[in-house]
Records
---
Amino acid sequence: MGSCRLFSFYDSELLSDIGTVGAFAPATLAGIVMGMRTPLYQVHVDAGAKIVDFGGWDMPLHYGSQIDEHHAVRQSAGIFDVSHMTVVDILGTEAKAYLQHLLANDVAKLKKPGKGLYSCMLNEQGGVIDDLIVYRRSDENYRVVVNAATRDADIAWMAEVVKGFSANIVPAKDYAMLAVQGPQAIALAGSVIPASLRADAAVLEPFQAAEADGVFVARTGYTGEDGWELVIPADLAVAWWNEFIAAGIRPCGLGARDTLRLEAAMNLYGQDMNASVSPLVSGLGWTVAWAPADRNFVGRAALEAEREAGIGEKFVGLILRGRGIMRHDQRVTTPAGDGAITSGGFSPSMERSIALARVPVGAGADCKVEIRGKHIDASIVQTPFVRNGKIQIII
Amino acid sequence: MSEIPEDLKYTEDHEWLRVEGDGLITVGITDHAQSALGELVFVELPEEGQVFNKGDACAVVESVKAASDVYCPLSGSITDVNNNLADEPELVNTNPHEGGWLFRIAPESEDALETLMDTIAYEEYLSGLED
């Protein structure tokens, strides 16, 4: 890949290859470098998607307009191929006890089969190894959905922690995962899923799943809109995808997924938190189940010590008042000290720049963000920025 | 396939240049560049009167996901910038060679254009990048 100075990126995150001319090479040069592909890869290519590398996977960034795809999800319905995400089943008589040790949130909250919850998986230092959703399928069968790029590290860690428990870690195989999201998503998608599942799926509560005939459907998402995430057999993926499109749901790429989750103030692993920061300074304190006090989860001692010492930082939203676009890693200055942007970008709904940031607890309502040497005014705000199609904050 | 108008000159950094009747030079980014960057949401332009050397970073184009520098393709002083881009950065995507121009520059030297590519050379340059 030749150097090409117009495309010298400030923001070199997972999606950073958008503009580099050579970035098209991995997907188009047969036999040289090829990423992993989902069962829908060819469908994306045929639909004109711009394919980028995402955590080792060749994934659609957009199908023409990332901004139009974003609006489709806020206003109607969009579908995302998220088959790169990792599904791991935890089976065995001590599956529950194991997960109560492995996770910072408590699976004892899952009172009935089908219920799910969001949790962090911590290391002994209280750093976040990954964030995930765990579902109780039965007393001896839980399903965990973790990120794509962290797959190997996650499974290795799970295997390390499981020693001494009567439980098996079984990565799922030959599946596709689809997310249909938006105010019209469930109405439009309902006709596509099997009749055996339709009635149950229609009445799911948020963070509840139903399954039948090898299809797993949960009322979850990563957009701030209503919708489903579905795990289906890989050999159904193309047919289902085409039926969802025929039903009026718009294909959306990872670009729109990122701006939607940022507006919804949902954390992105690797950017908003990682193995060296705790959930308590990542806006995820609410996911840590402190009670009962004798539940000994990995990282608990470190988090208790951190809490005892006093937490110096808070995780907030920022809205840029001046001109420009906030990006990951830019410095935030406040009278109480400096902080940093963890995720930043352009909000298509608000048509201005928004960000998530870690700042000193004493920071007030105003701050400045350093963008290319200039200090631009920004407001510190409560998140989310956008939820269920509506802007939540006006400044 | 990118549009590569024949009345323009091109740089390896994917800028186009047009010599205007008054000797000023209009600069923008190519159709290939805007397509590779994706939808632009912010453009930071130089100020009129600013003087740059060839190769200085003089503007920034930001797409939804990333910011990229634009380097001054020749030495000279900025005479004019496209203020329409403040409210409509997407003009760079929809009309990269006309309405989406970035700035005009009074070149220090007349020879500055001689090393630039014409349409055929830029087309070959692009196909070289894709191989």
Note: The longest strand of chain B covers residues 57-63.
---
Amino acid sequence: MREKPEGLLKWAHAFSAFMNAGDERLDNDLVFSQVRDADQDVYEADSYEQEWAEHEQEEKQEVIERLERWRALKGYRAARRAYALLCVTICMIMIVVLLYTVGSLPAYGDPNHPINNEVSARYIEKGLQETGAVNIVTGMILDYRAFDTLGESTVLFTGAMVVLFLLRADAQSHKYSALAQTMKDSPHSETFYEPHRDVILQKTAMILVPVVLIFGVYVVLNGHLSPGGGFSGGAIMGAGLMLYVTAFGFASIRRFFTYKTYQFVVLIALLTYAMSKCYSFYTGANHIESIIPLGTPGAILSSGLILVLNICVGFVVTCTMYAFYAMFRKGEM
Amino acid sequence: MGALIDRLLVNYESTASVILFCIGFSTLLMNNNLIKKIIGMDIMDASVYLFLACQGYIKGRTAPIIVDGIQSVEKYINPIPAGLVLTGIVVSVSVTALMLALSIRLYYRYHTLNLDEIIALAGKEEV
Amino acid sequence: MTAIVVLMLLFLIVCAVAVCLTRDLLTSVVIYMSFSLIMSVVWITLESPDLAITEAAVGAGITSLLFFLTLKKIHAIDARNEVRRRHAQQKQDKGGASGNA
């Protein structure tokens, strides 16, 4: 009777050994021995770093032990359970209050809902004449509420900048620490898990990236005619750039897109936007007046400044999305 | 009570968004893991957007894109909530990226994503 | 139509509960991705195609990608610390051995 599970276990061990045999990159011992052989001298020189690592390790061990002792206490479990109970109670109270509020809302899909007031009627009835945009939502966010959208683009830019501050510091630290530099070049560094010349990925990306980028450009340029606009088109273009980087690596994208390009493009786009907004304030802050004629509704070259603003927002969003990706993946652009 | 349930079933989109909001909030409260907390926050975001957008929906009308030259209020839904939510979705990505970057920094410093352990380690540093 | 919308809303709620209850981080991120995809279909039923496009590109695409990258970065940090710890250990052993000799 006892033979069977043991036999199964043996097979499982053999199977896992077989599976791990090919994947020797994941073998810590192997990696460690390679690092040790290649970089013995660097390690010798870097005693401060090592002391710090030891100290950190001891400190963490101590805290973990303390936490475990804390967790072993009887009170801990009771407190934890009481906390969970409190959470559930709070959520239940909140759900009851909110559901009661929902009960006194007007019916779903009701045309007489107070939200459908004269503002939206005005946008629908006069929007096409005043903004020239067939898509009323685009006309609204880039003309009547363009100031709001400028603020949002600035939020995106600021967000990208803060992510840059937070994640760029570790890219810089490689310069000052020999150990960090070694780690960067060692087989177990952060670039270690990335695909190296993955043929399937590269061939697929070669077909997909142009399609995705052209679709993004289409969505941006047709923002005033069809669903879409700067935000969604920019996100699609950013996704295309991400796919390109994933397949071909940062070395090939640096040929046309570096940190300098990023700064330049985002700066020009935001400045163009802000200038046209300033002009609108100068002329009475009603909505963006421009000398550009509105053109025939439905044509690509229509609706005055909305097309330009859409392109600006598209550039900002593309660059921001790519910047997020590059920061998270590598810590530099 | 029966009348309230009837109203809730009529406003089923709002009801779902309220339930989603509370689930997201309890995810935020009950999980100790930072990544889980961020996902809970994103679910709360999505539920608020759902609530906003379903207020502007009107039965039997189409999206506010003028295709036949008809500019009647009777034909299109309310464009204002859609515009607000469009702005919000993109900002929420920015917020998520910021929170994830902060979590990565915390992981560099404390080698854990568990909030209890981070608080314990940080408290030890101050002393 | 209403039945489909109700079904999708139920799916959203199930996804949210599953995110709350799963232990594995990668699984919960994938569930969140499907949550966003269903959300973009719900936007279409609410007659807001602008939102649907944005949610599909941003919510299901880029946010999930950022989550995946975060998880990957955390594993890389783990691996690096492991190498560092082993080196410190080995150095200590070697130093102890030479001291004794």
Note: DSSP finds five helices and no strands in chain B.
